[in-house]
């Protein structure tokens, strides 16, 4: 299996990284940022992961992303596959979904899975 690189990011901190697949979670999935109790947390915190994981449609998107990665890997090329997952700030939805995708790929398909959270450390974006 070729290497898969997954990068979570926040559109509010800069442009999406170059990728074969880019998921934009800004408008279609519940944002933990709106809950003051979760705002300062990140996807490294279980309450955020639980809220994102319980969002309708998230696991369908995760499964579809894993299937798309598998389709790229089935092709004749051996270049690394790049997946970018974005939300507004890069601290909640995108980081959690990137974690979920990476976890499924590691558990089911082996190979080198590199996961980077580009903006997880950045301050909360005021909205």
Short description:
With 127 residues, the chain is α/β, with parallel strands linked by helices.
Model description:
With 127 residues, the chain is of the alpha/beta class. It has one domain (4-117). It is built from 4 helices and 4 strands, in the order ββαααβαβ. The chain has helices at 36-39, 46-53, 58-74, 93-109, and strands at 4-10, 21-24, 81-87, 113-117. A 4-stranded parallel β-sheet has the order 2-3-1-4, covered by helices on one side. This is RNase adapter RapZ. InterPro entries: RapZ-like (IPR005337), RapZ_C (IPR053931). Residues 3-121 form the RapZ C-terminal domain.
Q: What's the arrangement of secondary structure elements?
A:
Layout: E1 4-10, E2 21-24, H1 36-39, H2 46-53, H3 58-74, E3 81-87, H4 93-109, E4 113-117
Helix pairs in contact: 3-4
Shape: globular
Residues in helices, as a percent range: 25-40%
* Largest sheet composition: 4 strands, parallel
Structural class computed from helices and strand pairing: alpha/beta
Q: Report the portion of residues in β strands.
A: 15-25%
Total count of strands: 4
Q: Please give the oligomerization state of what you see.
A: single chain
Taking pLDDT < 50 over at least 5 consecutive residues as the criterion, the unreliable ranges are none
Number of helical regions: 4
Average pLDDT, rounded to a whole number, is 93
Organism: Streptantibioticus silvisoli
Domain RapZ C-terminal: 3-121
Protein name: RNase adapter RapZ
């Amino acid at each position: 299996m070729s290497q898969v690189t997954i990068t979570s990011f926040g559109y509010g901190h800069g442009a999406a990284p170059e990728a074969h697949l880019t998921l934009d979670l800004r408008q279609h999935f519940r944002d933990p940022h709106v809950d003051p109790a979760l705002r300062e947390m990140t996807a490294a915190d279980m309450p955020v992961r639980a809220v994102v994981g319980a969002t309708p449609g998230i696991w369908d998107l995760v499964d579809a992303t894993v299937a798309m990665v598998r389709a790229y890997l089935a092709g004749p090329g051996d270049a690394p596959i790049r997946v970018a997952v974005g939300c507004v700030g890069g601290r909640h939805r995108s980081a959690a979904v990137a974690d979920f995708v990476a976890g499924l790929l590691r558990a089911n398909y082996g190979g080198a899975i590199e996961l980077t959270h580009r903006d997880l450390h950045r301050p909360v974006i005021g909205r």
